[in-house]
TrEMBL record:
InterPro entries: His_Pase_superF_clade-1, His_PPase_superfam, PGM_Phosphatase. GO terms for molecular function: phosphatase activity. It comes from the Bacteria. GO terms for cellular component: cytoplasm. This is Fructose-2,6-bisphosphatase. It comes from Parafrankia colletiae. PANTHER family: BROAD-SPECIFICITY PHOSPHATASE YOR283W-RELATED, PHOSPHOGLYCERATE MUTASE.
Amino acid sequence: MTGADLTTVHLVRHGEVFNPEKVLYGRLPGYRLSETGERQAKVTAEYLAGLDVAAVVSSPLDRARQTATPIAEAHGVDLQVDPRLIESRNAFEGRPFEAGPAVLRYPRMWKLLRNPLTPSWGEPYAEIASRMLTSVAEWRDTFPGRHVVLVSHQLPVWTARRALEGQHLWHRPDRRQCSLASVTSAVYRGDRLVRVDYAEPNGPTANAAGSVGA
């Protein structure tokens, strides 16, 4: 098998967001990268710089577009936007959010916690997986034999990876392997998945259970 036989779709999580109020920001506008996040984006761009990248595509949210911009610039391609890469819907959006027993402080929200396997508080995992994998397949088929970079968010990237690997979609959020500005790479031969690789150009970062809006 040669490199020319393979097409790789890289799912990049955006960098750190400036969020001093610790709000679960989800799809809210105006949440941009912190200075650290901007540095992380540049490091990830350097990590991907030696690849034959045909397209760089981003979620429409600011933090993802900011992360994608240095990657696109490094390869001399225009940044494209795909709405399917957006963050998942979440009923806790806009609230300061703490994982674990702290959520019991909000009795009106208890009903949203009734089924963590769906999950009942947000966009179903199956819907996230469907839109992400549809995007992956479309961009893969558009540029066979090359690399494509899709910049998204922690939960969509992790859900897509679990779907690709044939795992059940429900999971513990604090056990996601999807650090800030990390790269999850789906390697294909034609439309057949060969393997999934994972890299942390910026090193590991904590995956707090409250980061479902990240």
